Amino acid sequence: MKSCFIIAEAGINHNGDIKIAKKMINVAKKAGVDCIKFQTFKAKELSADPKLKYNGETQEKFFQRHEFSDKKWENIINYCKEKKIIFSTTCQNLSDLDFILSLTDLPFLKIGSDDLTNLPLIKYYAKKKKPMIISAGMAYESEIRDAVDVCKKAGNKNIIILHCISSYPTHAEEVNLARLAEIKSKFKVNVGFSDHTKGNYAAFGAVALGARVIEKHFTLDNKMPGPDHVFSADPAQLKELVEGIRFIEKSIGSPKITPNKEEMKMRKLVRRSIVASKDLEKGKKISLLDVELKRPGTGIPPKFINMVVGKKTKKNIKKGELITFQKLNG
Fold first, then answer.
1. What are phi and psi of 159, to 5 degrees?
2. How far is CA 200 from each of CA 59, 94, 190, 191, 234, rounded to the nearest angstrom?
């Protein structure tokens, strides 16, 4: 099994402070994730209604406080290179994507759940011929199909759909990890999971069910101000996420049903064999009273007892000695 790609979603949890963003990069690197991802936007391009509220204030004001300048984005990208961690970002608009691509070569293009139905944007991104990771929160099946079809018609079949529940935090009964198999089957794409639950249990389950990408929001401190901090993984949980996923990947192993090397040793130690219950003289016709089933498992297995009872011994067999076919006639 190939390694699951783990994305530490910084999102807007830097609160518009580049010092916090750099600390988050350090935390992500230390945790061992594959990639740290941000969100790139221009507040004025997100909302047409200046009165539209989000988190207790207008959307424009909220996002202005979390917006980075062009110079700061260049600084962040260079810092990721310095720390040797993959940088990525969800570019909210076409101009954001073109700007980021002018600074660095993104390993994939991310479409958030908010833009799942933004087919013109998806088409533009797909034509860049880079892997597409598309979150499917708040989605009907038909909306996922539309997004996949647009990518394919644009000549891009390298698509991963992230199962996602856009409620913050997502509760266990809302997660519906069974959708992973359904999405993979219906749309013939690789699947992943964008996790908005508290803790790592849902992400671990997703990996066991075949998720090839895990995206998890994280924060330096759950008590920091902002809407996403409360459900995000703290530094210790982010490290645990990576360790747990890597353990699960090793644990999945092969579907072939056969003992491993250590089990073969254990078989000899704990399985039972047919042994003599008393001293048996040469020529003795063996009855059920003449045998016992005891460890070790290096002799004839108990399931072959009917192939032993009724046979005559070729030699003397002592009490407790393994009975083998070489010691029997016929």
1. -125, 135
2. 30, 33, 21, 18, 11
Parallel, antiparallel, or unpaired for β 5-11 and 35-40? Answer: parallel
Task: Report phi then psi at 26, rounded to 5.
Answer: -60, -45
Determine phi and psi for 130, rounding to 5 degrees: -110, 155
Tens of pLDDT along 182-202? 999 999 999 999 999 999 999
Please tell me the predicted confidence (pLDDT) of residue 20. Answer: 97
The C-alpha angle 211, 114, 88, rounded to 5 degrees, equals: 60
Low-confidence ranges of the chain (pLDDT < 70): 1-2
Helices (H), the chain: 18-31, 59-65, 70-83, 94-103, 119-126, 141-153, 172-175, 179-187, 201-208, 235-252, 261-270
β 312-313/291-294 pair status: unpaired
Asked if residue 225 has a cis previous peptide bond (ω within 30° of 0), the answer is: no
Q: What is the pLDDT of residue 62?
A: 86
From CA 80, how far away is CA 85, in angstroms rounded? 5
What does the pLDDT read at residue 1?
Answer: 45
Q: What is the pLDDT of residues 90-117, one digit of tens each?
A: 999 999 999 999 999 999 999 999 999 9
The confidence score (pLDDT) of residue 11 equals 95
Quickly list H helices, 84-118. 94-103
Residue 95 Cα distances to 13, 48, 122, 282, 297, angstroms: 23, 17, 13, 93, 70
**CA distances, 273 to each of 284, 293, 322 (Å):** 19, 5, 7
Mean pLDDT across the chain: 95
Contact 205/163 with Cβ under 8 angstroms? no
